[in-house]
Amino acid sequence: MIQIEYLLIVSAVMMFAGVFGFLTRRSTLAILLSVELMLNATDLNFAVFNRMLYPDGYEGYFFALFSIAISAAESAIAIAIMINIYRMIKNIQVDELEKMKW
Amino acid sequence: MDYSQFLYMHEELSLLAVILILFIADLFMCPDKKSGKGVYNTCLPVVLLTVHTALNLLPCCSAESCEAFGGMYLYTPMMTVMKSVLNVGTLIVCLMAHKWLSREENLVKQGEFYMLVLFTLLGMYFMISSGHFLMFFIGLELASVPMTALVAFDKRRMESAEAGAKFILLALFSSALLLYGISLIYGATGTLYFDEIGALLDGSLLSIFGLVLFITGMGFKISLVPFHLWTADTYEGAPTVVTGFLSVISKGSAAFVLLTVLMKAFAQSDLFYSWNTGMYWIIVASITVANLFAIRQNNLKRFMAFSAISQAGYLVLAIMDGTAQGMTSLVFYLLVYMVSNLGAFAVMTSVEENSGKINISDYDGLYQSNPKLAFLMTLCLFSLAGIPPFAGFFSKFFVFMAAFNAGYPLLVFIALANTVISLYYYLLIVKAMYIKPNESPIATFKSDGYTRLALALSLLGVIVFGLGGVFYTYIEQFSYGL
Predict the structure, then answer these.
(1) Which domain, by its residues, includes A67?
(2) Touching B: A residues 2-41, CB under 8 Å
(3) Complex-level ipTM
């Protein structure tokens, strides 16, 4: 049986890899991928806590399911906005998103 | 299953009915392609929303608090009051959107605008009424996903798309942090009901880390200072009407929910101490930093963004005191802030739609050409700054009272000092409108009827809410404490 610590370490590494990617990537699509990594880390966390610590209920699993659905909806609208930007400037690098500063 | 519990959700159901009617109306009454004239107009949504507001305003006096669906959905009179406040704000936003929606490129998108605005409102309803973190999260996302679409509503304008991209990326990031916090809290307690969490949390490191992530996620939504960097860009790029909606309705509902969740789930004494200390510094930073940045802005929307961050600091000041008084002052502050800010935004929209100008320097000499609008703008700005005869003074007073009673005299002093700074930059606009000479001020124009109605409602609020404690006492009888 795998210890709960190992599973939590995996999810924490995923989470902070996502945060790192969010802060360092230059392409908006890569940023979106990083955010998805973060959201998946939380889903894993819910599932692990539910399975290992509170096996009686299903609250964690349900939360993970809903969060997957909702993050899919959010990514859809994010990609829609990026396609719109691409149509206008033929580029989706964050460096190009600088019309408004300070 | 007991179907009668749906009756507790009558507010959500009636809003959903409004949305469905508008949806069907949009299908059959879309604008005529040949003439380009919109058949379906602002009138229908405004009337429906007024009916909806009036229906749900009345019965809130007799109702008692209760819960439905196993505690997922809560119903208390205070939540009804909060929802009514949001309803009125949305109504004003819909009124002032009329002129903007009558633009040629927006004519076909009218239906979408109302649909998105009302779905955002529905999400906020669910968020306010939630008794469980799942419900809370779904409500939050239901409010923020259509919001993004609204921010990027001007499809052909690069600023709008850029604002939308910044908003959605930061919203996703903050949701992920918020969810991670919730998952840690779930790990610490094994439940996601606010009430049960309140009884089970023990102030361990795990729960404190969860709490910190939760406050961070909510801080992004309310745009408090260390998490405010998206605000100015999003506010500037979004259409002016949407900026008004974003700055008041979305911020206010998030602040109210932050208060209720902190009160219910994190009331245990160690945790209370940790979030109180954290919020202390967040509030000081929000009020001060935003004020300093607001002074150097020239774009009026950007200016209002920093003003909104600073106002959010005052709004959250009411949270410090985890009692009924704090909750009352928060709702009252929000109500007054809403009418004053939306009044200012209605003037801005009207000027922008008629002349295309949005910079503060364009407002030089507005009094010569449009004295009434300039006067209204002045009243709203005075109310935002908190000058005595207007409502803003009383709302600030009650918030300061609540924080003072909670034992934070220094914090109240800092907030007071910042009120003076904010008075300076609000007066900069008044000075531009009245005193600065300008050879060619914005030409005289007449606002349309809907904008006038929005302006009248805001003006009424600014003056009437300042007339005394009637509204405050009315709200107070519903509020509950820790």
Answers:
(1) 27-93
(2) 15, 18, 22, 28, 31-32, 35, 38-39, 41
(3) 0.95
